[in-house]
Write a structure and sequence with these properties.
The complex is a heterodimer of chains A (506) and B (429). By secondary structure, chain A is α/β, with parallel strands linked by helices. Chain A has helices at residues 15-24, 46-55, 60-74, 115-123, 166-172, 179-185, 187-193, 204-212, 453-461, 466-483, 490-497; strands at 37-39, 98-100, 150-156, 159-163, 175-178, 217-221, 230-236, 247-252, 257-265, 272-275, 278-283, 288-295, 307-318, 324-331, 336-339, 342-345, 351-360, 365-368, 371-374, 380-390, 394-403, 411-421, 426-435, 441-445. Chain A has eleven helices and 24 strands. The longest helix of chain A has 18 residues, at 466-483. Chain A is globular, with a radius of gyration of 22 Å. Chain B has one domain (5-374). In chain B, 22% of the residues lie in helices and 37% in strands. The longest helix of chain B has 19 residues, at 410-428. Chain B starts with a helix and ends with a helix. The mean pLDDT of chain B is 94. The chains are: A alpha/beta (506), B alpha/beta (429). Chain A: One of its GO terms (biological process) is iron-sulfur cluster assembly.
Chain lengths: 506, 429
């Protein structure tokens, strides 16, 4: 039994905040689905790569692409620059492919999917029925039914179980399917875009992913189309000793818009499991993509045993002029998180935004942040990061803002705040700032005292004391970030709103 | 672990021309210990994370790049107007004739080489020791190289309130000089000492200053690094601060193709206070790197880092700053600001302002900004009849003000302001 420790918190951190952080870290998704699985042999080698490719019925070019990635990966070293301490995973002691036996023959429609799998998602609050709203979202009943539809692609271990609303999306011209399907059905699109944002050679985990990714989601929104509903992928790891390697490719063609949500959970186990995903987003002229994540992988127990090692490469390429991307992430799970959703602002007047809330507890470690690479003229970016650490956890913000010589009039604003709950945790900030032209304006701040003077003055003029006024403005600001999350994440978000950032340190 | 082949050969090439430390007395032992440590770490290489923004090649090369001599005839030598005790080094060698006689109440000064032969010496517990403490978590091999091969330097011990500042003047007279100086300073309990440093020193200058500030002691430091265009320098200050002590250091840098100034401070006693500031102005072929690492390891300490850089015409400014708050270092007040003013489109500013915090009741903040001169302010001044060039200089000086305010002595601060203004004037043409 773990010894119950009283946490001493400093003045200014209210009980509501402490409770909210605690409740978020009580893991509700730790159960396991008992289902017959089929595995590829343990370990990774060219044969396994071929086998995965074969299982997905892929064309030859795809197999070659994977094998080249694998050859490259074998020569690479695991990166060690992050502020994370974890034993190096034994890459040969796990499965790279696991699928439910019932998925051997790909079901033609959701009606044919194994009821056990449907029940799994039902229990997670993600029913794979074409219903209007997701269960359990407070207040969602009052929403007009129209426009609250969410299409879901459900990924279970290594395979996609099914995708909802495909017909309706097809009518709008939107392609939303699993990536394995896209490789077969839309090879020209996959060939054109896959690996162009995150090249095969990008980094250790992205290269491994390129070799062994088993499934994931594919989205293509044609020119001028506003995607009629929100798209969502739900990742579930179920099998033991199995790594999940998914690949997501989103293409927003000229003038289109799509909002994409991602959720993930895993059973409670003593041994750590590996998850290494790659997400690539291509945004053409005047298009906009909103990508939201609630990452809730199993974080390990209170003694730091088990949990998911989450090594993720996410990048958006704003290729066209006036294109826009917005990353919103709530990171509450995983034993180890290594994740930097980034924006390449290539098109003139393109915009990138990154809103993040990372909460760590017990022995969790998070090293997360973003990169804003300004290449085009008049590009803008904004980074708002809130890190909250409790227990014996470590929470790092790591980011890069780079203004290239050509990025005339580039503008960046960065704010990172962190809150420590208890005296045994850590909060760290590692920003890199590289400015190569003088018309760019870059500001990096990490204080709570720097709230908007006008707002403060307004509050003071109405009789509040300074402290109250600051608290109100800061709290309001935090809520604003959370409200950037789509409705479907409201449940988690509602709990998070209770967290105040009083007593923050930069 | 053995060094990679590339690092091994680079180190061997660098060590070739240097004479090995003499063993025997305490100094020799400290030097050979440093050599052992250096052999294990190797020299900095361009791909090292800590040298991400500054290429160390010219600082680690076997021989220095020659630097033309420069004599600033247009201004009086630095600190000349002050009543001070002057110690002169020419290309890294102490010049007794040019220096003042060392006789000042509350002050002991010795040359490193002489004191190093003694059986027992107070500096034994500091020489190389503070440098070694500063090697974790980030390695600083150039400082270890200095500890192992320093040929000259002074050991200064203040036992009371020293009546006038000690000035270390570094003259540069040989185009190919490669100087390695190592100073050790101990400010005893309740004592006060001011150190002034100025001059380019050599074509390539490697300097380490270890400063041990005892409880309730005060240490003030102001340096200017010379206006030579071609000089290169890698300097380190390692300081340890006792309870209720005060440490204040300010550096002005104008010109110089390569400067890397590292300051490593450990606050080990409660209520200690450390301020590090810098103002630099670069025009053309100029690379200036301020790397600061402050560790809070006691309760209720304060630290401030204020760095301002004015850059033009292809000049590059670098800032790497870190505040590390150890577990238990509650009530820490840490402040860090790094700002750059880019006067034209070719200038660059690269920064990495870091925080690493393991205590919950602290107030740490950092800010970093970069941008061109404020057009609105410029317009305001011009609309009131101030010509464009003058208005730009005025705003540039205003930008640097916060860093200069960190200088304890008003007299010196005024002098520095005048020199910065003169620097700007010369460039107005």
């Amino acid at each position: 039994m773990a010894q119950v420790e009283e946490t001493q918190v400093k003045e200014g951190v209210d009980q509501e905040t402490v409770d909210a952080v605690k409740s978020i870290n009580t893991y509700k998704y730790g159960w396991e689905t008992d289902i017959e699985m089929e595995y590829a042999p343990k370990g990774v080698n060219p044969d396994i790569v071929r086998l995965i490719s074969d299982k997905n019925d892929e064309p030859e070019w795809m197999t070659e692409w994977r094998l080249a990635a694998f050859a490259r990966w074998e020569k690479m070293d695991e990166p060690d620059w992050s502020m994370l301490k974890y034993p190096t995973p034994d890459f040969q002691d796990q499965y790279y492919y696991a699928r439910p036996k019932s998925m051997e023959e790909k079901p033609k429609s959701l009606d044919e999917v194994d009821p056990k799998l449907l029940a799994t998602y039902e229990k997670l609050g993600i029913p794979l029925k074409e219903q209007m709203i997701l269960a359990g979202v407070e207040g969602a009943e009052d929403m007009p039914a129209e426009g609250r539809k969410v299409a879901v692609d459900a990924v279970f271990d290594s395979v996609s179980v099914g995708t909802t609303f495909q017909d309706e999306l097809k009518k709008a011209g939107v392609i939303f399917c699993s990536i394995s399907e896209a490789i077969k059905e839309h090879p020209e699109l996959v060939k054109k875009y896959l690996g162009t944002v995150v090249p095969v050679t990008d980094n250790f985990y992205a290269t491994l992913n390129s070799a062994v990714f088993s499934d994931g989601s594919f989205v293509y929104v044609p020119p001028g189309v506003r995607c009629p509903m929100e798209l969502s992928t739900y990742f579930r790891i179920n099998a033991e000793n199995t790594g999940q390697f998914e690949r997501t490719l989103i293409i927003a063609d000229k003038g289109s818009y799509v909002s994409y949500l991602e959720g993930c959970t895993a059973p409670q186990r003593d041994t750590a499991q590996l998850h290494a995903a790659v997400v690539e987003i291509i945004i053409e002229e005047d298009a906009e993509v909103k990508y939201s994540t609630v990452q809730n992988w199993y974080p390990g127990d209170e003694n730091g045993k088990g949990g998911i090692y989450n090594f993720v490469t996410k990048r958006a390429d704003c290729r066209g002029d006036r294109s826009k991307v917005m990353w919103t992430q709530v990171e509450t799970g995983s034993a180890v998180t290594w994740k930097y959703p980034s924006c390449i602002l290539r098109g003139d007047e393109s915009q990138g935004e990154f809103y993040s809330i990372a909460i760590t507890n017990n022995y969790q470690q998070a090293d997360t942040g973003t990169k804003m690479i300004h290449l085009g003229k008049d590009t803008k970016s904004r980074i708002v990061s809130k890190g909250i650490s409790a227990g014996k956890s470590q929470n790092v913000y790591r980011g890069l803002v780079s203004m290239h010589p050509r990025a005339q009039n580039g503008r960046n604003y960065t704010q990172c705040d962190s809150l420590l709950i208890g005296d045994k945790c850590g909060a760290h900030t590692v920003p890199y700032i590289e400015i190569k032209n003088n018309s760019a304006r870059v500001e990096h701040e990490a204080t709570t005292s720097k709230v908007d003077d006008d707002q403060l003055f307004y509050c003071r003029a109405r009789g509040m004391d300074e402290e109250e006024a600051v608290a109100l403005v800061v709290n309001g600001f935090c809520k604003e970030v959370l409200q950037a999350l789509p409705m479907e994440f409201a449940m988690e978000a509602q709990q998070l709103v209770a967290i105040s950032l009083e007593g923050s340190v930069g | 672990m053995a060094l990679p082949q590339v690092k091994q050969s680079a180190l061997e090439a660098r060590l070739e021309g240097l004479s090995l430390p003499q063993t025997g007395a305490w100094l020799g032992m400290a030097q050979s210990d440093a050599l052992t440590r250096l052999n294990a770490m190797g020299l900095p290489a361009p791909r090292d994370e800590y040298w991400r923004f500054t290429n160390p090649t010219s600082l680690t090369a076997p021989v220095p790049t020659p630097a033309a001599l420069f004599s600033p005839q247009d201004e009086a030598p630095m600190f000349d107007a002050l009543d001070r005790l002057k110690l002169v080094f020419v290309d890294g060698v102490f010049d007794a004739d040019a220096s003042d006689e060392i006789a000042l109440e509350g002050l002991e000064i010795e040359r490193l080489a002489e004191a190093g032969q003694a059986d027992i010496h107070w500096a034994k517990d500091i020489y190389g020791k503070l440098e070694e403490r500063g090697q974790d978590p980030v390695q600083r091999p150039l400082a270890t190289l200095n500890t192992a091969f320093a040929t000259d330097g002074v050991l200064i011990r203040a036992t009371g309130k020293v009546s006038k500042p000690v000035q270390l003047v570094y003259l540069h007279q040989d185009e190919n000089s490669d100087a390695i100086l190592h100073h050790v300073i101990r400010v005893e309990e309740g004592a006060e000492l001011t150190i002034l440093e100025n001059g380019p020193a050599a074509a390539r200058f490697n300097k380490v200053m270890e400063v041990d500030v005892a409880d309730r002691a005060e240490f003030h430091h102001v340096r200017t690094q010379g206006r030579d265009h071609e000089r290169r320098a890698a300097t380190h200050i390692f300081a340890r601060l006792g309870a209720e002590s005060l440490f204040k250091s300010f550096t002005m840098t104008a010109n110089g193709v390569m400067t890397r100034n590292e300051v490593v401070i450990e606050l080990t006693g409660d209520n200690a206070n450390a301020h590090v500031a810098g103002a630099c102005m670069g025009d053309g072929d100029f690379h200036h790197d301020d790397t600061v690492f402050i560790t809070h390891d006691a309760v209720n300490c304060e630290s401030r880092q204020v760095f301002k850089k004015v850059l033009r015409n292809g000049a590059t400014g670098v800032f790497q700053g870190k505040i590390l708050v150890q577990p238990g270092a509650q009530k820490t007040d840490g402040y860090q600001i790094s700002q750059s003013l880019l006067l034209d489109e070719n200038a660059q500013f690269l920064a990495k302002p870091e925080l690493e915090i393991y205590a919950d009741d602290v107030a740490c903040s950092h800010g970093s900004t970069s941008g061109a001169i404020d057009e609105t302010a410029l317009f305001y001044l011009q609309s009131r009849g101030i010509p464009h060039a003058e208005a730009t200089d005025l705003l540039t000086l205003a930008f640097l003000a916060e860093a200069i305010e960190e200088i304890s002595s008003e007299e010196i601060a005024d002098d520095i302001r005048d020199r910065l203004e003169a620097w700007l004037l010369r460039r107005r043409g």
